[in-house]
Amino acid sequence: MPVKPAVKKPTKGGKKGKSKVASAPLKAKVQETKKVVNPLFEKRPKNFGIGQNIQPKRDLTRFMRWPRYIRLQRQKAILLKRLKVPPSINQFSSTLDRQTASQLFRLLDKYRPEAKKDKRARLFQRAKARAEGKEDKATARPLVVRTGVNTVTSLIEKKKAKLVVIAHDVDPIEMVLFLPALCKKMGVPYCIVKGKARLGQVVRRKTCTALALSNVNPEDLTNLDKIAQVCKTNFNERYEEMRRHFGGGILGAKSLARIAKMEKLKARELQQKLGS
């Protein structure tokens, strides 16, 4: 029996239909293994909302209750950034550069006051000499740095101080607030350095507000003149300029973000007005 040729059936609307592409052979479906759940253990998800389950333990170092003195010094540092600081106080934020400061402290260390141990040994030798019947000779007073606000002030007023060194972190700052103006008026070179504790090391104490060099050995005169000239250029000659500069006024991250957001909204509104 002869085979009849296949006749294509006409599509609806008389349009030719698109030939379908044979789909790729699929892999045999993998049967998902169901996790066996023990009916004895019921699932109880925790809710950490307000008034619900107890919060898990976290690292709460940031929320630690710090001692009062630490909180005060941190708050003071932030306030000095945020508030408008008058020039007389703000001048203490600009200190001597590191290289000159290291040269200055090297010079000051040569004129440290006598330690108690050395003084005891010197007096013992003197008493021993007297006991042996030798003539008592008073030792010459060595050249040392002069310390304390009252001593330094009197040396400046008499124009005997060759260089005045003031600490930048004296508390209360009013103790040394007048010294830069006094040095400028009397023509005495002065400088502001970092750390009352560093000045205290020079004079064998915990802290020191101000130091003054009234006299040095002949071999150190050149070094002293160089440092004094740098201090004069950086502080004495710039005094009038520093008097006009206020400090602070630095906003925090949140305030800056809020201002930026407002500026963005204003810019968008202006663009919409111009567009319409």
Describe the structure.
The chain is α+β, with helices and mostly antiparallel strands and 276 residues long. The protein contains 10 helices and 6 strands, in the order H-E-H-H-H-E-H-E-H-E-H-E-H-H-E-H. It has a 4-stranded mixed β-sheet. The chain has a two-stranded antiparallel sheet with strand order 1-6. Strand 3 (163-167), helix 6 (179-186) and strand 4 form a beta-alpha-beta unit. Helix 3 packs across helix 8 (221-236). The radius of gyration is 41 Å and the shape is elongated.
What is this structure, in a nutshell?
It contains 10 helices and 6 strands, in the order αβαααβαβαβαβααβα. It is an alpha+beta fold.
What topology emerges from the helices and strands here?
Blueprint: H1 68-82, E1 84-85, H2 87-90, H3 98-109, H4 116-131, E2 146-147, H5 149-157, E3 163-167, H6 179-186, E4 190-193, H7 196-202, E5 210-213, H8 221-236, H9 239-242, E6 247-248, H10 253-275
Helix pairs in contact: 3-8
Helix content: 40-55%
Question: What characterizes the major β-sheet?
Answer: 4 strands, mixed
| Biggest sheet strand line-up | 2-5-3-4
Beta percentage is: 5-15%
Give me the Rg, rounded.
41 Å
Strand count: 6
The ordered H/E elements are HEHHHEHEHEHEHHEH
Task: Name the shape in a single word.
Answer: elongated
The SS-based structural class is alpha+beta
